[in-house]
Structures are given as structure tokens and as C-alpha cells.
Amino acid sequence: MSESETARLGARVRAYRTMRRMTVRGLAAEAGASASFISQLERGQAGASVGMLRRIALALGVTVADLFSEDDEVGHRVVPRSGRPELPAGPGARKYLISQRPLRNLEMYAGEFDPGASTGAEPYTHGDAQEILLVIRGEVTLWLGPPGEAARHVLGPGDSVEYRTSLPHRVANEGERTAEVLWVVSPPTPAT
What CA–CA distance (Å, rounded) separates 171 from 168? Predict the structure, then answer.
């Protein structure tokens, strides 16, 4: 890799890190590296192995390709409804990524739940970010908290709720019509 490529890589790592509000030490801990190495990498004074780049990308919630691509410098991106990437969801549920990679300050998802569908039988957590659930159409039930202690909230069109992603949560459609929701998470959940 040339000096200019190393410098661009370092600048992109720094940009993603600051976008995520991570410290050099925080990124180093997540990636299994020393803070001095991350600092040198960001200043273009060190290169990184493919394995290290994978760990850094994972910690930043991006792909290794994102660390080298400058395609995301476009001011806006239009994604038609038919072009939304669909994510794995349970039977009768569909989840679509609205925010496009590389994720910056937030991630946004659209979801549809047929009657009886849910995010799964068990509540789940992901990272420790702020999450907002907004019901667009239909009605959903949201459980917040550990099993046996979870608070139950029935939400209709226009209703929203805000919580930490570290709090166990589960969404289900107990109604008779398909429900449509939006989730907004900030900062983005680290890739797993």
C-alpha cells in the first residue's frame, strides 16, 4: 500500500471512529489492538494486516471495503421501497434496512408483522444505544425488560417508545391486521 493509500485509510478509520463517538482507546479495546497502534494507523504511520482491518471494521460497524471506499461521500442516496435490503426475520415478519451502509450516526429499519408474527419468542438485546420504535400502521405489543419482569406496551398508529438497546425487548403483532413499524437506533449497533 502506498503512503497516500495508508494516509487515506487512516483518515477513514479516524472519521468512522469519531462518527461513532469512540475514543482511540475504545476502538483499540474493541479491535484487540493497542491505542498507540490505532493512533499510528489513523495518522498514516502504520499499516494493518487483513485480520486487524477486519477487527477494526467490526468494531466500527462497517465492512473492510468501507474502510477503502470513498463512494459514501455522496450527499444523498435514494433507495426505492423495492430496493431496500431485506434482513432475516421470523415467520410472518419482514425487516428492511432503510439507512444505507456505511452506517453513520444512526441506523433505521422498516418492519412488517403479519398477525401473530413477532421478533422472536425471546426478548433480545443489541449493544447499548438509543432505540425508538414508531408504529406506522396496525398495532404491536412491545415488551421491555427481562423475562418475567417485562413491562407490556400496546402501541397503535403514531405511537412511539424510546429505550436502550441493552434492555431486553420483543415486538409482536397480537392484532388481526398487518402492522408496519420503524426502528431508529443511534449510534448504530456494531456489526456482529
Answer: 11
